Amino acid sequence: MKRIQMIVFYPTLAFSQIVQGQVEDQVTPLRDATTAFISTTHFGIDQVILAIAIIILLGMLFRLLFLHMPKIEQTAYLGRIFQESLVDLEYKRLAAKHTEQRDQGEYEREVVGDDKWLEAQQKEQNLDHEKLAELAARSSFGTSSFGGISGGFGDPWEEERQEAKEERTKRREAEMRERKIEGRFNDSVTTEARKRYRDDLDKVREQAKTSAKETVGNLDFATLRGQGPAFILQFTAIVVIISTAMILGVLGVLGGDHIGTLLAAIAGYVLGQVTQRGGSQAVTPSPATQPTPDQAAPKNDSPT
């Protein structure tokens, strides 16, 4: 057993020493170079802390610019107006289909074809299956009036007979009952159709709001103000240059003269951009109208 341990232990120990020596050989030059750099720069702890603070401030500025500013613009006056306009346009576009279906009576046909709704109406109005099917068929074909019962009334040959009068009275009463039943059924169909139409419009309104919100979320409001990607790139470059100059100035790498020259160059660039933009937006006055040769020539009114 001891012989096996010796066979396993000593080779492992030798391998670990070899690896440790190789790592030490690779780490030593890096450590020496770092020590030499620190010893030659002589940065103070206050300088390093101030430089780190400037970097953190720069990061917060860009976070505010690229993450929070779009959200603020979306909830601002322009963002709300733009979103409401998109909601109205999208709502009209999506609701046009349902309005056409309403005008063509498709909602009524959908209602009278709904078995669950017909069963509920059968229980509510106490109708039998045959009567319910008859009312549904009349409503689906748009015939809301009865054609009368066969035999009619007002036959002059039967006016003098009492039985004919009683029969006509019964028929008239039966027809009035039929009209009342059909009227209640048609009113129920119309009410349900309007309810389904309003429900569809509510769904369309929610879809329009969702679509407008997504569109506004993907919109760059800087473009609407004439400040597109070029402006963002220029602004970012200027901020990075100024921040880098401040860091190098704090660390003592750049002197005050260099920083002043750099800031003056940046100020001149910004002023030139503003002047160029203002000149491009100025209205060019129209040139004076030149007189034609006929107008320029003097008139000779003296008699020949």
Overview of the structural elements:
The chain has 304 residues and is mainly alpha-helical. It has helices at 2-41, 45-75, 77-103, 106-112, 115-125, 129-141, 162-217, 221-224, 229-250, 256-281, 293-296. The protein is rod-shaped. The protein starts with a helix and ends in an 8-residue tail after the last helix. Residues 152-175, 279-304 are annotated as: Disordered.
Summarize the structure.
With 304 residues, this protein is an all-alpha fold.
- Distance N to C terminus: 148 Å
Unreliable segments of 5+ consecutive residues: 1-11, 141-154, 281-293, 295-304
Q: How many β strands by DSSP?
A: 0
Derived from helix and strand composition plus strand pairing, the structural class reads: mainly alpha
Tell me the major beta sheet. none
Order of helices and strands: HHHHHHHHHHH
Radius of gyration: 46 Å
| Fraction of residues in H or I helices | over 70%
**Helical region count?**
11
* Shape category: rod-shaped
Quaternary organisation of the protein chains = single chain
Binned strand content: under 5%
**Mean of all residue-level pLDDT scores:** 66
